[in-house]
Specification:
By secondary structure, this protein is an alpha/beta fold. It has two domains: 7-144, no CATH class; 149-409, 4-Layer Sandwich (Purple Acid Phosphatase, chain A, domain 2), CATH 3.60.21. Helix content is 43%, strand content 15%. The protein has helices at residues 18-45, 51-77, 81-117, 120-145, 183-194, 220-223, 238-243, 245-252, 286-292, 319-328, 335-339, 358-365; strands at 149-157, 169-172, 200-204, 232-235, 257-259, 263-267, 270-274, 302-305, 342-347, 372-376, 379-383, 401-409. Helix 6 links the parallel strand 3 (200-204) and strand 4. It is elongated and about 75 Å long.
């Protein structure tokens, strides 16, 4: 999931309830108000007098938000060239509109000062420059979204077996393969990952996005290009649930990728736990499932793969309440993971906001756990900002990453 754009827009209609529909209406209203502010400001800044042009602007402000939401829903029910093209246009517009909104607000803040020193004609040049800056900033964000960096993370693990000291671990998260991050794009990413010579690859959710179930097949070949001697392990994210896990698993069965669904595998003395992202209407006791797995009881350090940088238990909430809290009141109490003996949790989901200034929001909501490495005694968590993008193919708040993790033994206490 990307954090910015509400996931309930993408959920099949049969899963909608009254609360979700209300949120959708509220989000649509926010989009409309934002568009009206941008277009009304443009009319004021550039002294537009034509009633016809004003009418066109008003209609665009009302229609564009509807098109953004409708295109996002359509492409997830039927992925083809037409729905993909329409979605691409309006997803790019959504990212641009966010930046236009930000630069319009800056323009209004500068207006009192500018009018005190400059004539109206000079102010129009200032407004034009700010609007142009929004377009340039957006263009850079699109370029940035498709040029990930390699991020190396060093983590100390108590009791680390000798065989793990020289292993190269690669984590990718929130790849969002779909309309924008195409099979050709991922083929290039696979070459870059293989060039790191990974011993093991962890995929921590939201591998797919912006496609219907019948759009998964073209990605099987590129995913099969990944190579890792100890295996490629995957846990789902919220977006796979929107597509349908049966369809996702069917596609993954044709690859080397091994899904870990509330399951444990043991590799050279280290236990790898994979926990499912909660699925609508499915209640389960995660701790009981994990403790019942044969490989869990054999001891050794533990690496946990979980899509969100939150607790893996619901703590009395329903699945729906738990998913809502993941966005607006995330539980960053990692007691449950620590009780399982987890030494390193690998997560994603937040995109670190993806588009500026939303990273300020994710940092506040997740209390700093929205990105990077955090260590508490023998427990560490690394949250990746992700490799792909959700909604707009744009990153102005950070750069996408492929994470290389190096483990070392923790020093004796």
């Amino acid at each position: 999931m990307g954090y910015l754009f509400p996931a309930f827009v993408l959920i099949p209609f049969k899963l909608y309830n009254a609360r979700m529909i209300l949120r959708l209406i509220m989000m649509l209203l926010i989009f409309v108000v934002g568009h009206l502010f941008i277009f009304w400001s443009g009319i004021r800044f550039f002294a537009v007098k034509s009633p016809r042009l004003k009418n066109i602007v008003l209609r665009a402000a009302l229609l564009l938000p509807l098109c953004v939401i409708a295109s996002a829903v359509a492409v997830r029910f039927m992925t083809n060239a037409a729905t993909g093209a329409v979605y691409a246009v309006f997803a790019v517009w959504l990212g641009l509109s966010i930046n236009l909104l930000m630069f319009t607000a800056i323009a209004w803040m500068l207006t009192p000062i500018g009018r005190a020193f400059f004539k109206a004609s000079a102010m129009r040049w200032l407004y034009a420059a700010l609007f142009a800056a929004a377009f340039l900033f957006s263009a850079w964000g699109v370029w940035n979204a498709f040029h990930p960096v390699i991020k190396t993370v060093d983590v100390a693990i108590p009791g680390l077996p000798d065989k793990w000291r020289d292993k190269t671990i690669v984590q990718i998260s929130d790849v969002h393969l779909g309309v924008f991050h195409t099979p050709g794009y991922f083929s290039n990413i696979a070459k870059e990952i293989n060039g790191l010579r990974p011993d093991i690859i962890f995929i921590t959710g939201d591998l797919f996005d912006s496609i219907s179930a019948d759009g998964l097949q073209p990605f099987v070949g590129p995913l099969n290009e990944l190579r890792a001697g100890d295996g490629i392990f995957y846990v789902n994210g919220n977006h796979e649930n929107y597509i349908g896990m049966d369809a996702v698993l069917s596609a993954l069965k044709q690859t080397r990728i091994i899904p870990l669904r509330d399951d444990v595998v043991r590799i050279d003395g280290v236990r790898i736990i994979g926990v499912d992202f909660p699925e609508y209407g499915v209640e389960r006791d995660v701790m009981k499932f994990i403790r019942s797995r044969r490989d869990f009881g054999q001891g050794g350090p533990v690496i946990l793969l979980y899509h969100t940088p939150t607790s893996i238990v619901y703590k009395g909430r329903t699945v729906s309440e738990h998913q809502t809290s993941t966005y607006w009141n995330p539980d960053v109490d990692y007691t449950a993971a620590k009780e399982l003996g987890v030494n390193l949790q690998l997560s994603g989901h937040t995109h670190k906001g993806q588009i500026f200034p939303f990273g300020l929001l994710t940092a506040r909501l997740y209390r700093g756990y929205d990105y990077g490495l955090h260590t508490d005694g023998g427990f560490s968590i690394y949250t990746s900002c992700g490799l792909g993008s959700f909604g707009p193919p744009m990153r102005t708040g950070n750069t996408p990453e492929i994470v290389v993790i190096r483990l070392r033994p923790a020093a004796p206490v």
